[in-house]
Amino acid sequence: MLFSASCGGDNTGKDSTGSVENSAAKEPVVANDPGKFGKTVSDLIIANNYQGLADLIILHDEMEKAISGSTAPKEGKEFAIGRIDDEIKVMQTDTKSGLDNIRLEGIAAGIVWENCTFKEATPSIDNSRGFQMMTLKCVLTCNGQDHTITITDIVGTANGWKLSGRLYFGDPKPAKVQPQSFTPHR
Q1: DSSP code, position 179
Q2: pLDDT at position 173, please?
Q3: Which residue, among 108, 87, 110, 91, has the nearest Cα to 151 in the 3D structure?
Q4: Integer Cα distance of 70 and 18 in angstroms
Q5: Positions in the chain short of pLDDT 50
Q6: CA gap 115, 78 in Å, rounded
Q7: Integer Cα distance of 82 and 87 in angstroms
Q8: How far apart are CA 119 and CA 43, in angstroms?
Q9: Residue 179: what pLDDT?
Q10: Are 169 and 6 in contact (CB under 8 A)?
Q11: DSSP string spanning 53-100?
Q12: How many Cβ atoms are within 10 Å of 108's Cβ, its own excluded?
C-alpha cells in the first residue's frame, strides 16, 4: 500500500530496534484503546456492516497529518499526500473485499456468524514511522471455537484509531512475489 510504503519500513509491529513498541507516540491517540477498537471492528464484521467499517477508514486530513509528521523523506511525503484521495478509495475497496472474504472464509470454516462474540484483541504497535501504526489480532468465539481476524495498518490519529490497511480471516496471506524476467547476457 502506498501509505505504508511512502512512510517507510514494513509493518511488523516492531520499532526500529526490533522490539515490540507499545509506548505512546509524540501525539497520544485519544478516544480509542486497541481493545475497544478491536471489539468495534469485530462487532461490525460479525454484523456484516460495511458502512460501519467504512466510517472507521482514515480521513484525508488525518492521513495528511500522519504523513506530514512521518519519518519519510520530503519527496515521499509530497508524493503520498498528492495520492491521499486515491489511496482512500483503495482502502474502501480493500475494506469491502476484506469483509466479504472474512465472511466467506468463516462460513467455509463452519462459522454461524449470528453465534459469534468478540473475545479479545492483541495489538502490535509500531512507532518507528513518526506516528502510531498498529496490527490487531482479534479473536472471535463462534460456536465454541476461537477464530482469529487480523487487521493491518491501523493508524493512530488525534481522533482515535483509523483503518488504512486490510482485513484478513486468520493471518495475512504472504504477498505473492512476481517472477522477474531474466534475459541472459550474450
Answers
A1: P
A2: 73
A3: 91
A4: 19
A5: 1-30, 181-186
A6: 46
A7: 10
A8: 11
A9: 54
A10: no
A11: HHTTBPPHHHHHHHHHTSSS-HHHHHHHHHTHHHHHHHHHHHHHHHHH
A12: 9
Count other Cβ atoms within 10 Å, centred on residue 161.
27
Amino acid in position 135? T
Distance CA 82, CA 79 (A): 5
CA-closest candidate to residue 77, choices 151, 135, 2: 2
CB proximity list for 21: less than 8 A, separation 6 or greater: 13, 14, 15, 125, 126, 127, 128
Q: Measure Cα distances from 120 to 104, 149, 173 in Å.
A: 22, 11, 22
pLDDT tens by residue, 48-97? 999 999 999 999 999 999 999 999 999 999 999 999 999 999 999 999 99
Which pLDDT value is given to residue 39?
Answer: 95
C-alpha cell at position 175: 504477498
Task: Name 108's Cβ contacts closer than 8 Å, sequence gap at least 6.
Answer: none
The DSSP call for residue 57 is B
Report the alpha-carbon angle 78-82-83, nearest 5: 120
What single letter denotes the amino acid at residue 67? I
